[in-house]
Structures are given as structure tokens and as C-alpha cells.
């Protein structure tokens, strides 16, 4: 855990983005510390005002405690412009990624950026978060408005941005702030991950056998590959490519994990919650009509999806009421795959901290299996991986407790000072699963990241 480094001064301003530009369009020229975007809107974090790292079984509780002690008070202390009243994510926001397993050797993160760019339904804003001890002493001789303007413009310039007459824009290429990002894209190559494809095929066969012996109903098995680069990867352009190609997914970055997930673990707005469950997959090369038939009429696909949706309902029941699940499920079409999709809605029964609601929801059968304890034990035996942040909760939480927690899928984890990224993909194994088909599905699920990194799929 990390204490807050001194008192914070928070300033939020409504701004205008360049005409015809979304936040996603600005990503290639930025070096983000956190990202959460859907259809070009959402949040981009730049720099770091505070960064909390934790591990172990109490990781959700420790992050929730930090939020309560340090971030929540800012909701009272930082005044929002009238135009932003009631907009979730406006003002100080922390980006978070939490490991899939409590036994992971990787950190879980909560990051409070020093500059946040936000956009929601056409309204854009910036929030600057500065330590009071870092403020220029000359501010004392200025009035509050002049000091605020100087401070905000200084933070913006640090991150290659400027604000003129409310218009937010990138600094001109070639200035000192942008020079370090003007280099070319790093050359990349694909290498084997922790295990071979044959290892994955054997794991799937063993999983199907365990299901046949009625040890469990469903098991999710993941594998990894590594993309190596000849220089540190620039995350801004990678995230911009994901946001452009996968507009119906949440493009994310928090800690060392990034990607574009189609699955919402839980969204919290006050006492209201919602989620989107995905399970059951067909390759995107299949036509829509055939994919619909394969997903909706195949008992294997429907059973896999039913288990995932029911597991989320069961896990949220102790903290939520009026839970409703879409029935029948819909077919979600993405550029790389089709999924069966179920939307879930409900209302929290008590003022449960958002991070503890996420803990209650995690892990669902969509990323682990059914029953959960049996599946988790078998995963640790068959996968032979430390998933780290892959398939864990990822998203943001604001000072008022509103939050988006997606599941960190269709992504990878940066390693070796950013010169390589480990990509993960997993498949739901049920009775009748074919190992070769599941292996092919993992490649389909890695397609978004491989494409964004400029790597040809084998």
C-alpha cells in the first residue's frame, strides 16, 4: 500500500476537443498512464499523482480502503463545473487493474493520474491533480484564478497539450514535449509463450476428461504468446488502433495491462449496477446468419453461456436485488468473433464499496468455470501460467464511487521495460469441446492485439 504523497489540489474545467476529434483520436500522440474508452469516449489518464500496488487475498479490500481514505474525500473538496454535475467519471478518477488470482506474483494497481481527459455524450473536460507541495511558490503572489490557470497550463504542456479559449489541442509536432514521441514504430516478432500449442491441446483434453467424469461442468483454460519488440512499445498508437477497430469494446490500460475487452464485469452508478456476460464463441470469418445458428442452436454453446450468466447472478445476489438477466441471449458481432451476450441489471442492497462489489462478482464462469473452486484448482494444474492481470477486473472508479470494471480480455501484459508484451487468450471448455477448435479460438481472440501490434497471425 502507498500513502497519498501530500495533500492534493484538484481543478476540473470543461473544454472543447478539436472539431471532429474524439479522445481516441488523440491517443497516438500521448503517453497514457490509464485509458478507458468506448466509441471514442471515456477517460485518458496522463502522468501519476499517486500509485497504489498490492498483492494477495486482501487486494480488493486494501484498494477499497485507499479509495475510501484518500480518493473519496476529494468528491467533497473538489468542485465540479455545473455542466459536469451528475456525469460519472468527472473529476478525480483512479484507473485500476486487479490480478485474476490472489496467489499471483504480479501487482494489482490503483492509479490516480495527474491529468485526466474525459468525454461523455459530447461534453469534454480535463482534471488536473497536483500535490500542494509541488505548486510554484510564485502562485502565492497571484490570485486564485491566475494560479489555477498557470498550474493547469503547466500540467497540460508537460503532456503535449495546450488550452486556448477553452479549446484543448495537441502541441505542435517538434516541440520539446512531443519530440520524444515522434520516432517510428518498433519492429515486432512473435515468439512462443510459457508453453507450446501441444501443451494447450493436452490441457484441453484433460479438461474434457474431468468434465466427463463429472468433476465439474465448465473449465476455462488460457494460453499465452509473446510479442517482442526492438524498442519500447508506444502504447498510445496501439490503444488508438484498438479503439478504431473495436469500437464496441472497452479499450483499456491500467498498470501493465492493456487491450480491448468486450465484457463488462460490473458497472456501478450510485446504487444501480449492470453487467454484460459473454460466453459461447464463433470465429468472425463465419457469416452472421450462420454464426447466429451455431451459437443459438448448439447445446454446447448455450450451456457454456448459461453457466457464465448464472454464475454472475449467483455471485451478485448477496449484495444486489432485482437482478434481471436478458433472456434469450443476444448475438454480439465483433470484427474477430461472435459471442452469445447477456445483459444483467440490478440494484445494490447496501452501500457496498464498488471495489468490493467487483470482488463479489469475480471470477465468473466466463473466465474460470463451474463450480468455481473446482475449476480454479484444475486451472492451476493444467494451465501452468500466472495470468497476472489477464481476466482480472480492469477499469476506473471515481471519487463518488461510480465505477466501470471490465474483464481484462483480448489484451496483454507489458514486460521487460515495455520491449515485449505477453498476450493471453482463454476458451470455455465443456462436454464435447474439441481441442483443435479451442486452440483456433485462442488465435481468434488474440487477433485484436496482434493486429494492433502489426504482427501476422501464424
- Oligomer description: single chain
Main sheet record: 12 strands, antiparallel
Number of helical stretches of at least 4 residues: 12
Helix percentage range: 25-40%
- Distance between the amino and carboxyl termini: 42 Å
Number of strands: 24
Strand content: 25-35%
Morphology: globular
Low-confidence stretches: 174-184
Q: Helix/strand-derived class?
A: alpha+beta
Mean pLDDT: 91
Whole-number radius of gyration? 22 Å
List the helices and strands and how they pair.
Blueprint lengths: L7 E8 L7 H4 L5 E7 L2 E6 L3 E5 L4 H13 L2 H4 L15 E5 L10 E5 L2 E6 L2 E9 L12 H15 L2 E4 L2 E4 L5 H4 L8 E5 L4 H16 L5 E12 L5 H11 L4 E5 L2 E5 L2 E6 L2 E12 L4 H10 L1 H18 L3 E6 L4 E4 L3 E12 L5 H8 L7 E2 L1 H11 L10 E6 L4 E5 L3 E5 L4 E10 L5 H18 L6
Antiparallel strand pairs: 1-8, 2-3, 2-13, 3-7, 4-6, 5-6, 5-21, 7-8, 9-10, 11-12, 12-20, 12-24, 13-14, 14-23, 15-16, 15-22, 16-19, 17-19, 18-19, 21-22, 23-24
Helix pairs in contact: 2-10, 6-12, 7-12
Amino acid at each position: 500500500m502507498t500513502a497519498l504523497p501530500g495533500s492534493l489540489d484538484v481543478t476540473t474545467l470543461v473544454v472543447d476537443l478539436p472539431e471532429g476529434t474524439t479522445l481516441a483520436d488523440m491517443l497516438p500522440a500521448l503517453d497514457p498512464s490509464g485509458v478507458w474508452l468506448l466509441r471514442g469516449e471515456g477517460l485518458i489518464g496522463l502522468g501519476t499523482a499517486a500509485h497504489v500496488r498490492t498483492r494477495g487475498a486482501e487486494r480488493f479490500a486494501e484498494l477499497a480502503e485507499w479509495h475510501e481514505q484518500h480518493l473519496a474525500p476529494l468528491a467533497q473538496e473538489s468542485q465540479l463545473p455545473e455542466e459536469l454535475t451528475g456525469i460519472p467519471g468527472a473529476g478525480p478518477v483512479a484507473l485500476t487493474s486487479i490480478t485474476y488470482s490472489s496467489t499471483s506474483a504480479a501487482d494489482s494497481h490503483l492509479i490516480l493520474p495527474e491529468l485526466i481527459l474525459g468525454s461523455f455524450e459530447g461534453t469534454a473536460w480535463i482534471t488536473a491533480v497536483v500535490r500542494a507541495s509541488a505548486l510554484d511558490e510564485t502562485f502565492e503572489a497571484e490570485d486564485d484564478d491566475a494560479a489555477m490557470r498557470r498550474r493547469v497550463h503547466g500540467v497540460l504542456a508537460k503532456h503535449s497539450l495546450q488550452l486556448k479559449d477553452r479549446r484543448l489541442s495537441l502541441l505542435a509536432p517538434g516541440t520539446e514535449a512531443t519530440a520524444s514521441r515522434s520516432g517510428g514504430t518498433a519492429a515486432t516478432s512473435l515468439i512462443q509463450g510459457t508453453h507450446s500449442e501441444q501443451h494447450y491441446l493436452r490441457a484441453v483434453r484433460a479438461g474434457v476428461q474431468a468434465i466427463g467424469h463429472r468433476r465439474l461442468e465448465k473449465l476455462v483454460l488460457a494460453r499465452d504468446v509473446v510479442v517482442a519488440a526492438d524498442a519500447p512499445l508506444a502504447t498510445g498508437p496501439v490503444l488508438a488502433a484498438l479503439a478504431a477497430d473495436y469500437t464496441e469494446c472497452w479499450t483499456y490500460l491500467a498498470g501493465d495491462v492493456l487491450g480491448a475487452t468486450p465484457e463488462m464485469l460490473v458497472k456501478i452508478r450510485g446504487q444501480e449496477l449492470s453487467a454484460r456476460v459473454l460466453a459461447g464463441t464463433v470465429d468472425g470469418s463465419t457469416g452472421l446468419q450462420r454464426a447466429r445458428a451455431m451459437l443459438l442452436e448448439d447445446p454446447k454453446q448455450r450451456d457454456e453461456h448459461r453457466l457464465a450468466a448464472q454464475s454472475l447472478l449467483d455471485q451478485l445476489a448477496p449484495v444486489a436485488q432485482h437482478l434481471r438477466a436478458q433472456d434469450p441471449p443476444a448475438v454480439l458481432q465483433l470484427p474477430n468473433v461472435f459471442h452469445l451476450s447477456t445483459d444483467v441489471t440490478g440494484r445494490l442492497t447496501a452501500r457496498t464499496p464498488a471495489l468490493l462489489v467487483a470482488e463479489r462478482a469475480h471470477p465468473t464462469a466466463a473466465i474460470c468455470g463451474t463450480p468455481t473452486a473446482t475449476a480454479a484448482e484444475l486451472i492451476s494444474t493444467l494451465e501452468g501460467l500466472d495470468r497476472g492481470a489477464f481476466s482480472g477486473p480492469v477499469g476506473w472508479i471515481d471519487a463518488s464511487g461510480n465505477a466501470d470494471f471490465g474483464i481484462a480480455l483480448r489484451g496483454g501484459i507489458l514486460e521487460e521495460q515495455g520491449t515485449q508484451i505477453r498476450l493471453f487468450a482463454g476458451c470455455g471448455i465443456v462436454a464435447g469441446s474439441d481441442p483443435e477448435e479451442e486452440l483456433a479460438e485462442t488465435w481468434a481472440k488474440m487477433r485484436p492485439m496482434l493486429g494492433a501490434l502489426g504482427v501476422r497471425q501464424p
